[in-house]
Design a protein that fits this description.
Blueprint lengths: L2 H11 L4 H20 L4 E9 L3 E9 L7 H4 L13 H8 L2 E6 L5 E8 L2
Helix pairs in contact: 1-2, 2-4
The structure holds adenosine-5'-triphosphate and magnesium ion.
């Protein structure tokens, strides 16, 4: 199943509103594309959280070259390639929680969360 379809289903099941579903699908698409464009492909884990808060958490992992300067990578408009440089910064704005862990030579992990309540 495509990442977008799987994330849309999970978001719907977790009772995210339509706008938040779309934000999560858009973010997932951006991060998945980065793992393909820069990370040599990777994995995504979709988690439904049902605790004090409920929502969806997505964990993207790749074993690509990693990111040397994370602040720079998160800067609006900065790209090392030919993109718009808005994938990471835009995703951070769309999500309730955003974590990026990366080291050169050790790959990249991006964890994003959207709460339904
Ligand atoms: N998984 C990754 N592995 C290695 N480098 C990455 C990864 N994800 C992002 N980067 C680096 O961070 C930069 C910024 O990523 P971002 O998604 O914000 O912009 P972009 O992919 O260059 O362009 P856009 O997403 O707007 O098309 C990338 O150009 C790349 O250098
Ligand atoms: Mg990108």
């Amino acid at each position: 199943m495509q990442v977008r379809t799987a994330v849309r289903k999970a978001a719907l099941a977790a009772k995210l509103g339509l706008v938040d579903q779309t934000k999560l699908v858009t973010a997932a698409s951006e991060i998945a594309r980065n793992t393909l464009d820069y990370g040599k492909g990777g994995t995504v884990q979709i988690e439904r959280i049902e605790a004090a808060k409920t929502g969806i958490r997505l964990t993207f992992q790749d074993q690509g070259p990693g990111i040397a300067n994370i602040d720079l990578a998160l800067t609006d408009g900065w790209t090392s390639g030919s993109g718009m440089g808005l994938g990471l910064s835009g995703t951070r704005r769309l999500m309730d929680e955003f974590q990026l862990a990366s080291k050169p030579g050790e790959g990249t992990t991006v964890i994003i969360t959207k709460w339904s309540r």
